[in-house]
Amino acid sequence: MITLTDVHKAFGAKHVLQGVDLTIDKGTSMVIIGGSGTGKSVMLKSVLGLVTPDSGTITVDGNDVQRGDRDAFLARFGMLFQGGALFDSLPVWQNVSFRLLRGALKRPKEEAREIAIEKLRRVGLKPETADLFPSELSGGMQKRVGLARAIAAEPEIIFFDEPTTGLDPIMAGVINELIREIVTEMGATAMTITHDMSSVRAIADNIAMLHDGVIKWTGPVSKLDNSGDPYLDQFIHGRAEGPIEAVR
Amino acid sequence: MNALLTPIAALGATVLAMLAAVGRVALFAFETVTHLFRPPFYGREFATALVQIGWLSLPVVGLTALFTGGALALQIYSGGARFNAEEVVPSIVAIGMVRELGPVLGGLMVAARVTSSIAAEIGTMKVTEQIDALVTLSTNPMKYLTLPRVLAATLAVPVLVAVGDAIGIFGGYIIGVTRLGFNEAAYLKNTVDFLEMWDVTSGLLKGAAFGFIVATMGCYYGMNSGRGAQGVGRATKTAVVAASVMILAANYLLTELFFTS
Ligand SMILES: Nc1ncnc2c1ncn2[C@@H]1O[C@H](COP(=O)(O)OP(=O)(O)OP(=O)(O)O)[C@@H](O)[C@H]1O
Ligand SMILES: [Mg+2]
Predict the structure, then answer these.
(1) How far is the CA of B33 from the centre of ligand 1 (A)?
(2) Which of A8, A32, A7, A1 lies closest to A205 in space, CA to CA?
(3) How many CA atoms lie within 13 A of A97 on its CB side?
């Protein structure tokens, strides 16, 4: 279980998170929605300890994420970064099996390569892709390699920052299914940021909407269409008029 | 009153900021060294860094030394002519190269070549979230990126300096024999006779210190790069300037330490 309690974070004069409270139960899929620049990525990074909140607490299974053994903590996580964040000095397969080539989870090279190719297949990439370098791939392919890397070591908790942006509708469908599968079959806890409403419906057990630095609405996916919340309604229907200003 | 104080306050603020930066760099360097004693170690990264920093810098350092040795021979010859001391050319070229010009010019050339590329590479990794990605993959960037580069530079630059010394002395020899009318055997004998072991060793120790500076500054400014292409550009520039100034300052301090008793 992941809990965020009254989390604040500012960059200079810009108050991005202003008291975020959120709970994600073990083995469920939480989708975070919210306008561009509202701090969704910053929120994910705070849970991983990549961004240190100014105040508030974040715990995973009751343990404060800022304390304790960072290596053991991070070994339970997989993360897909919004920009892919592939290592451009390494070929694709070594990116995917990065964790399996060094450190505590080290495997023989051939085995790591096989796992990498298998994970690439799951995100819809051919085995030939394995030996290319990230700079030789299209944006959507890089995204999928990032996704393969995030799931390669079969983590318990997986964060996806916009997994389907830049993908064609068919590939987006494949990725949505994959995320759903990881949660239902592997029992992983997932937290996904997306702007794609069809992804939201395909992936989510629960939804949280971030706006003005706080969670404006949270609830199960079944309540999405009859929440009665004007912010959420405006957002999911993509209306220009409503309580959320278009210029932010 | 205020108009009088503003420049002083600005000066004070600059000095404080500089001291804070020095403190941060020192902490960074110290942390890097501590990782030398704490596994895991990344051998492959170290080997790559050794090739990048050592082997691929050879041409630059070699050419620099060759031309410097030749110019030095010409200078000492024409300067020495004023008091009929032309025959000191071989020994002065050797001592000048080995003690001072070999390590300093070698260090500065490596700063231009290596510090810039380290800072730009790590800075780009920082702005494209690759450093964050390393952390989430349970890999400490200080161990994976910084230590291999710093260790490789500290070991490789003395070797580069040694090669540069030899090439520089050879450059002086060529000029001495072909242009200044020295006897070949006499030039070599003069070079060897007046050169002491400590002349060479002190230069190599300087090289090690400069290698440490070069890589540490590249890594530090890369890791602390600002956002975007502009941030990386600024980090690269600052790293090269800082490394060059620190090399010259360290050279003075080490010379004080080694040669005043
Ligand atoms: N390291 C940083 N330094 C300064 N400002 C930052 C930093 N990281 C994020 N911000 C700012 O925090 C705000 C939230 O950024 P974040 O990336 O979390 O947005 P987001 O909700 O993920 O948006 P998008 O949907 O466009 O990805 C932005 O205004 C951004 O400029
Ligand atoms: Mg984002």
Answers:
(1) 34
(2) A32
(3) 22
Short-list A219, B231, A30, A44, CA closest to A16: A44
ipTM of the predicted structure?
Answer: 0.91
Residues of A in contact with B130 (CB under 8 A): 85-88
Give the SS3 label for residue A132: coil
Q: How far is the CA of A17 from the centre of ligand 1 (A)?
A: 10
**More confident position, B122 or B87:** B122
Percent above pLDDT 70 for chain A: 99
Mean pLDDT of A119-124: 93
Extents of the domains making up chain A: 2-237
Query: Which residues have beta carbons under 5 A from ligand 2 (an ion)?
Result: A 41, 82
> What pLDDT score does B164 carry?
97
Residue nearest to atom 18 of ligand 1 (CA): A39
Quick one: pLDDT at residue B142? 96
A242 pLDDT more than 90? no
Going by CA atoms, what residue is nearest to atom 3 of ligand 1?
A11
| Nearest chain A CA: its distance from B224 CA (Å) | 14
Following CA atoms A95, A99, A100, A101 in sequence, which dihedral angle do they give, to the nearest 10 degrees? 70
Select the CATH number that applies to the domain covering A2-237 from these four: 3.40.50.300, 3.30.1490.10, 3.30.160.140, 3.30.565.10: 3.40.50.300
